[in-house]
Specification:
By secondary structure, the protein is of the alpha/beta class. The protein has a domain of about 130 residues: Cytidine Deaminase, domain 2 (3-Layer(aba) Sandwich), CATH 3.40.140.10. Helices cover about 40% and strands about 15% of the residues. It is built from eight helices and five strands, in the order ααββααβαβααβα. It has a five-stranded mixed β-sheet, with helices on both faces. The protein starts with 13 loop residues before the first helix and ends in a 13-residue tail after the last helix.
């Protein structure tokens, strides 16, 4: 007889709660990105997941709504990429599946690395109006991550849906975290690790 799981839970690391509270509200995009990249490095240092972080901010005020890190290996769920975690936490906090709903401030997703195919797919349904990225797809692939198939001109695809994209903010800093993960012998996980 099939016993179906009836609930899915995941927990963010304890250190991330303190880290989030250290954020000083700023309208400076580079400062917000450096904060997100710092979270990706802390995720490696604390051995709580992959070298990726993402956060949801209010665009105009710079207020932090939520911050997420990659929890794939620690929580055992392949969907728990940093962007998905940040979006889910923001939607729960604001009690809505649509972060772009009426009467709401505009929200942006700031990610330490370009979205993979899964996260790219989630962005239009999240309601965010702006996406900011640091490291590029090729940077994640260069250390062994499989980013999946996404449109070649993914930026244009999002912009066609009214979502502004600002790439390459603090790219070099984000790449140093990816390299640090390799130096720390971080687990490069992919869907079929033993096949070609």
């Amino acid at each position: 007889m099939l016993i179906q799981t009836n609930k899915i839970n995941f927990s963010i690391p304890d250190w991330l709660i303190d880290f989030a509270s250290s954020y000083k509200t700023t309208v400076d995009l580079s400062e917000r990105m450096r904060f997100v990249i710092s979270a990706s490095k802390q995720n490696v240092i604390n051995n709580t997941g992959g070298p990726f972080a993402a956060a949801i901010f209010e665009v105009e005020s710079g207020e932090l709504v939520s911050i997420g890190v990659n929890l794939v290996t620690t929580e055992g769920l392949s969907i728990l990429h940093a962007e998905i975690v940040a979006i889910a936490l923001a939607q729960r906090k604001l009690c809505t599946y649509d972060l772009g709903g009426e009467q709401m401030p505009r929200h942006e997703l700031i990610a330490s690395t370009e979205p993979c195919a899964m996260c790219f797919g989630a962005i239009p349904w999240s309601g965010v109006r702006h996406v900011v990225t640091a490291a590029q797809d090729e940077d994640a692939r260069s250390i062994g991550f499989d980013e999946g198939p996404k449109p070649e001109d993914w930026i244009k695809e999002l912009e066609n849906r009214g979502i502004k994209v600002t790439p390459n903010i603090e790219r070099d800093l984000a790449r140093t975290v990816l390299q640090y993960y390799v130096e720390c012998d971080g687990h490069i996980y992919n869907s079929r690790e033993n096949s070609n």
